[in-house]
User: Fold this.
Amino acid sequence: MAQRIKKGRDISGIIILDKPLNISSNHAVQRIKRLFGAKKVGHTGSLDPLASGVLPICLGHATKVSQYLLASDKRYQFTMQLGQTTTTGDVEGDVVLERPVPAIDQEKVSALLESFCGIIQQIPPMYSALKHKGQRLYKLARAGQVVERPAREVVIKSLKLISQTPNSLTLEVCCTKGTYVRTLAEDLGEGIGCGAHVTFLRRIKTGPFELNSSLTLEQLEADAGDRVALDNLLLGLDIALLEYPEVICSEQQKADLCMGRRIDFEGLIEEPLIRLNNSQGLIFGLGKWSEEGQLAPVKIFA
Assistant:
């Protein structure tokens, strides 16, 4: 069977998109793909249609670093409406329970938030993209089914109050991958004793990428048709890996690593991931320290 040839340009780089409300992450990816005429495009951790904010989109070889961005910490701002629990944990769902909201002062809020910091267990929501026996949970939920979901361990690195009204809290959270903000809001609402759901969710940072360095679809589409201008907006894939140490490799060392060989390397540091740069300082892959004291390739980009 003949292999299908993908259409589009072989172009590589990263766009930090400020995803708007009311479109899926996949829809945003397809718009970027058409705009750049790129052959291969992917995102690095989806945002629900009702969430906005930082969504790094990788083109070409940059898709090979998407797994490292997926594993990065995330930072969100969100508003939780107190006194109402919904089927989805946000405003899209139906209200299933209403309870009076008790009076809570900032001291009580601070104590509650502090109790949620650190390692916690979360049960993923039914309205999520996780799979159960090959089926997406949200599809089962829409069919009226509820299945057992094992709790998952996540880390809340910080959780602080931004503003407060008698019936809502606006918070900022820094958390590890896999954290569900809707579940966090529901659990906080139960901690207060009245339930809650999310009415606003905005991702302001993922890995090294912050909101102030992101671009909107409108800004990008203003350069539609000008491929040179668009290409100049692309960031190098190494920007997603700046937290890892680097080594400069000779042409022979690069050739050996690209062939999958381990090499001796003077002054090698014992790190799980190391950026591999060529003699011009351009990244060509990731390596690691091996037990034999050699530099071993992990992933080669180009």
Observations:
- The domain at 244-300 is CATH 2.30.130.10 (Archaeosine Trna-guanine Transglycosylase; Chain: A, domain 4).
- Residues 100 and 220 are 46 Å apart (CA to CA).
